[in-house]
Task: inverse folding
């Protein structure tokens, strides 16, 4: 769950995704004594993952600015059609703004909308409208890639 | 062929199997402890340097150069006082940073970081300039009494080298301020993005 989210957030870049995932796990471990049980473990970990992703981008802005083309080239060289499709998916996710990227990956992980709203700290109503728009944008990006 | 969201979901699910974390829990715990220690060390390093500077200044004023002029005493107080103020600000900054909770909701976390950087912005503005002015005025207040001990050429050399050191110091402060202001703008942008419908 964490590594796949990091991979999507880092536009499919494997090494950066692993680095970010490591950062998330470290943050989870360090935040563990403060876990109050007000939410489920899953929501709590998602919150740390989302916040770590956003902080990582701020702290390592230059490093995180990976051009999508590079990623596509890395993957489309592969002869496997499934891998090529997955690479296109990550590239399409990478075209979305950071917040939208995180939201859509939680949707793909089948997290309840109310839970996503809790993780992001926004109202469920706003989130539903936003998810509808993100889905549309993601589909457009994928259709353009195909 | 048009892509449907269910197709995207299936593709995402298929990729789940290929995602494997290469780190075991004991390595993560070790890295977490290391990170905690290194963060504390970095934060304390800044404060420690400033404490050493104050102690060196106090030792110089009390043991080596026992100034007689009232003007020099005011200069001593201004120099040491401005560094002590900086230490207090660094400690307050550390306290603010510690209060940032990564397990909060993204918007709340972003607001905590925004408050921290806004505090840093205030420090970098008026407060830092005031500290530098107080320190410099204090330093030049020592010059009249220095003139009784040192020849004119050495006095000029001391005063000019202070200007050079102040310029180099200001350059580093300016770079740090720029970095933090870029981060502040980034946080503000993320906040707007989070609140967008």
Result:
């Amino acid at each position: 769950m964490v590594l796949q989210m990091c991979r999507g957030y880092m536009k499919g870049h494997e090494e950066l995704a692993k680095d970010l995932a490591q950062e998330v796990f470290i943050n989870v471990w360090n935040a563990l004594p403060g876990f109050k049980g007000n939410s489920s473990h899953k929501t709590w970990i998602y919150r740390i993952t989302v916040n770590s992703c956003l902080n990582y981008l701020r702290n390592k802005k230059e490093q995180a600015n990976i051009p999508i083309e590079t990623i596509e080239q890395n993957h489309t060289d592969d002869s496997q059609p499934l891998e090529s499709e997955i690479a296109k998916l990550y590239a399409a996710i990478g075209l979305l703004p950071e917040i939208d990227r995180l939201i859509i990956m939680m949707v793909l992980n089948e997290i309840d909308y109310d839970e996503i709203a809790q993780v992001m700290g926004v109202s469920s109503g706003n989130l539903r409208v936003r998810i509808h728009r993100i889905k549309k944008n993601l589909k457009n990006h994928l259709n353009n890639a195909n | 062929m048009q892509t449907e969201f269910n197709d995207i979901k299936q593709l995402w699910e298929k990729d789940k199997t290929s995602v494997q974390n290469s780190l075991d829990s004991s390595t993560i715990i070790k890295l977490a402890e290391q990170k905690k220690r290194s963060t504390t060390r970095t934060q304390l390093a800044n404060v420690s340097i400033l404490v050493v500077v104050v102690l060196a200044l106090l030792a110089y004023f009390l043991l080596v150069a026992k100034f007689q002029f009232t003007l020099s005493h005011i200069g001593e107080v201004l120099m040491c006082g401005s560094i002590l103020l900086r230490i207090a600000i660094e400690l307050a900054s550390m306290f603010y940073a510690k209060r940032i909770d990564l397990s909060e909701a993204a918007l709340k976390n972003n607001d905590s970081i925004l408050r921290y950087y806004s505090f840093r912005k205030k420090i970098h503005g008026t407060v830092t300039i005031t500290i530098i002015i107080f320190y410099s005025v204090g330093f030049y207040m020592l010059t009249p009494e220095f003139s009784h001990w040192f020849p004119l050429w050495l006095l000029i050399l001391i005063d000019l080298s202070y200007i050079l050191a102040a310029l180099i110091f200001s350059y580093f402060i300016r770079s740090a301020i720029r970095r933090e202001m870029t981060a502040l703008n980034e946080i503000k942008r993320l906040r707007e993005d989070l609140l967008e419908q």
Summary: Residues 26-195 of chain B form one domain.
